[in-house]
Specification:
- The complex is a heterodimer of chains A (314) and B (378).
- Chain A is of the alpha/beta class and 314 residues long.
- Chain A folds into 2 domains: 6-71 and 154-309, Rossmann fold (3-Layer(aba) Sandwich); 73-152.
- Chain A contains 11 helices and 14 strands.
- Chain A has helices at residues 18-23, 48-53, 63-73, 75-111, 117-152, 158-171, 184-193, 196-200, 210-215, 252-255, 261-270; strands at residues 6-9, 33-36, 58-60, 176-179, 182-183, 205-208, 218-221, 234-238, 246-250, 275-279, 284-287, 292-294, 299-301, 307-309.
- In chain A, the strands form 3 sheets. Chain A has a 7-stranded mixed sheet with strand order 3-2-4-6-1-11-12.
- In chain A, helix 2 (48-53) links the parallel strand 2 and strand 3 (58-60).
- Chain A is globular.
- The mean pLDDT of chain A is 94.
- Chain B folds into 2 domains: 2-118, Sandwich (Immunoglobulin-like), CATH 2.60.40; 126-374, 3-Layer(aba) Sandwich (Rossmann fold), CATH 3.40.50.
- In chain B, helix 6 packs across helix 7 (254-265).
- Chain B starts with a helix and ends with a strand.
- Classes of the chains: A alpha/beta (314), B alpha/beta (378).
- At the A-B interface, helix 4, strand 5 and helix 7 of A face helix 10 and strand 19 of B.
Chain lengths: 314, 378
């Protein structure tokens, strides 16, 4: 699917605008709006509010429940996925160990008040070291997934094919799809298992929160002030790659210390040329096939440590 | 006349006070920044504040306001302090130890309850209060047969809300589990922190000992029971992750010693330890002065200090700065860090008591087992 008709929104729980986003697309007036709420896990089917916002015409694809059925029917695949999970977790722990040191070095460089060429060169290299680490980690994650796909070929397994077939049929009449937030890894894994990106075809897509993260190229998890102490943003997974060049940051003003210029600058510079977009309530950003355009007030993290408007605007 | 002078200067107490009005106009202890005023009304020869704040003289005498039955005491408590105390009322040969009649705020422990005072900056954590939105987990009691102890042991098991057999959960084993439930509101805390996504849904085994001062003091049978009997049994019965990184031991005071000793005696079984106000007495030279109960503890901690990394990979440690144990806990931290152990250490202006341990649970549990807050973006 070419991502030429995608709208990414801020969190929808308290200030929903998903209905407005849907109204921006043409040809979506008829048929059910397919929704993916697998990130809500056991609460997947508690979608009354979302259904209400979308005019009572939603069709939940039930990817979470369907996956549970697959696990019941194909215990070999279930065990293989658990083993992969263990391997990924171990990989993440090792990456985290290295990341803490690399980030601290970068922060120390950014805290230096000098701006001469010697300091700037070291500063840039310290950030590059973090980027390199992120890239290496992402590559290792890819290897784990490729190995898994090659060995277990989940798409060819009966239990998966049955469920995928049902989802494909359910999507036949759906002119658009909404992917909500929730647990980003659970959501990502379900969408990956179902090959959802392929199933979507050219349908308009509206997504927010964890949905946007899972659909981006790399899943970056973040929280500057969790209860256990300051956290470091981590590359957690390769995403489904539909949202090119976007690092979605849901609830950014709550989860990130956006008044800390050092942290903001490091975040923006670490993720290089990508658009680190603060997806706070009422944020709205669209892909027009060539570039991202945002509504006024939708902000990005800037390399200078400030927040800036995303240009061009809608 | 320090206390009375202070109250007069503040305009709280007239030179010839109307005691009824003074007591009615104020709530006690009277907290003004870091100055805390205690009051007692009644006939007595002396009134003393009995507390367990290491560093302060043990008996803090109240002053009698002249020509009245009002007694007052002013203490400076640094910001964020919390202090448990009782009043000792002396009359003739009689010494009565009572809760402060003017202070409704009390904290329970296995021996009863104490009055509680705090300076500004201390807040009862909201995550330790019941929250109707937080789905409750369940607690079931089991009786298991122990070969090591040649008898039955009772264990309470907490399973989280929305428990599912198809999931795998991390395991936390809590020493003095029943006391943690009663005096730290542990179940409420677990329900709330899981609801807030700050810790993952987990299975918690709450153990008790009929003879904790012996069994928790590095009794090899205890470690054997936990590591060789309890853990395999739980991993057989519950959907647990079953790896060292998803196993944790927790305890306070002697319970912390039991946790550390169990992990140290069974290396590679537990990666995570939550140790609050550990009774980690040790000696660098000579004998200790903490009585015979501590003999096995000191012997163990001295041995542990020779090879700390054997115990676990990650430690959360906390201690109150008003505890005599602060010296031992503080001193262990650099040693652990030098040994390559990942340590989070927190001090609080509090004493050796259950509410101090309650107040550290959020940080400690989230440090050992970070919740899906990191993963959930609604």
């Amino acid at each position: 699917m070419a991502a030429s008709n995608v709208i990414v929104l801020g969190p929808q729980r308290h200030t929903p605008c998903v209905d407005q986003a849907l109204a921006c697309f043409s040809g979506v007036e008829q048929g059910p709006i397919a929704i993916v709420t697998a990130g809500w896990e056991e609460r997947e089917s508690e979608d009354e509010e979302l259904d209400h916002h979308l005019g009572g015409r939603t069709l939940n694809l039930n990817l979470f429940q369907r996956t549970e059925k697959i696990f019941e029917q194909d215990t070999e695949l279930f065990q293989a996925l658990r083993d992969r999970h263990d391997r990924l977790r171990k990989l993440q722990e090792l990456y985290r160990l290295r990341l803490a040191h690399a980030l601290e070095a970068a922060r120390e460089m950014l805290r230096l008040e000098e701006h001469d060429d010697l300091v700037e060169a070291e500063r840039e290299d310290a950030i590059r070291a973090v980027r390199t680490l992120d890239t290496q980690h992402l590559e290792r994650l890819r290897e784990v997934h490729a190995e898994f796909e090659q060995r277990w070929k989940p798409a060819e397994r009966d239990a998966v094919q049955r469920q995928v077939g049902e989802v494909r049929s359910a999507l036949t009449d759906a002119p658009a799809v909404c992917v909500a937030g929730g647990h980003v890894i659970i959501l990502l894994n379900r969408m990956r298992l179902f090959g959802l990106v392929e199933l979507l075809g050219e349908r308009p897509l509206i997504t927010w929160s964890a949905g946007a993260m899972a659909l981006s190229e790399r899943v970056i998890v973040f929280h500057d002030s969790p209860p256990q102490g300051p956290g470091d943003a981590e590359v957690l997974e390769q995403g489904l790659g539909l949202l090119k060049g976007l690092v979605p940051l849901p609830h950014a003003s709550h989860r990130l210390r956006l008044d800390d210029a050092t942290r903001v600058s490091l975040f923006a510079r670490r993720f290089g040329g990508d658009l680190a977009c603060a997806l706070d309530p009422e944020a709205w950003i669209e892909w027009n096939g060539r570039e991202w355009k945002a509504r006024e007030g939708t902000l990005r993290l800037m390399p200078d440590g400030e927040l800036g408007e995303i240009l061009p605007q809608l | 006349m320090k206390a009375i002078q202070h109250l007069e200067e503040k305009g709280l107490l007239e030179p010839d006070p109307n005691v009824d009005a003074f007591l009615a106009d104020n709530t006690f202890p009277l907290v003004d920044g870091t100055t805390v005023t205690f009051a007692f009304r009644g006939e007595a020869d002396a009134v003393l504040l009995r507390h367990w704040v290491f560093g302060l003289p043990e008996d803090q005498p109240f002053e009698r306001v002249p020509f009245s039955d009002l007694w007052v005491l002013v203490l400076e408590l640094p910001e964020g302090s919390r202090m448990e105390y009782k009043l000792e009322v002396v009359r003739g040969n009689q010494h009565r130890l009572i809760q402060d009649p003017l202070n409704p705020n009390t904290a329970a422990d296995p021996y009863g309850a104490n009055s509680v005072a705090h300076s500004t900056g201390y807040q009862h954590p909201d995550w330790a209060l019941p929250n109707a939105d937080a789905r409750p987990g369940e607690i079931h009691e089991h009786h298991i047969s122990s070969d090591v102890f040649s008898g039955m042991r009772s264990i309470k098991i907490y399973t989280p809300a929305r428990f599912r057999e198809t999931r795998r959960y991390p395991l936390l084993i809590v020493h003095d589990g029943s006391d943690f439930l009663r005096f730290t509101d542990l179940k409420t805390v677990l329900d709330n922190l899981i609801h807030r996504l700050e810790i993952p849904p987990m299975i918690v085994a709450l153990t008790d000992s009929p003879n904790r001062l012996q069994e928790y003091a590095d009794d090899p049978r205890h470690g054997e029971f936990i590591a060789k009997e309890l853990v395999p049994l739980l991993e057989d019965k519950y959907p647990l992750v079953g790896s060292p990184s998803a196993r944790a031991l927790a305890g306070a005071s002697f319970g912390a010693v039991a946790s550390l000793a169990t992990a140290w005696r069974h290396p590679g079984v537990f990666d995570n330890l939550l140790l609050m106000s550990g009774s980690f007495a040790f000696t660098d030279i000579g004998d200790h002065d903490r009585g015979p109960l501590f003999d096995p503890v000191v012997k163990f901690v001295n041995e542990f200090r020779q090879e700390p990394a054997k115990a676990a990979r990650r430690f959360y440690m906390s201690c109150g700065t008003y505890e005599s144990l602060i010296y031992y806990n503080r001193s262990l931290v650099p040693l652990l860090q030098q040994s390559g152990i990942d340590v989070r250490y927190t001090e609080a202006r509090d004493g050796h008591n259950w509410e101090n341990w309650r107040d550290r649970l959020r940080e400690g549990l989230a440090w050992l087992y970070p919740g899906p807050l990191w993963m959930v973006y609604e």
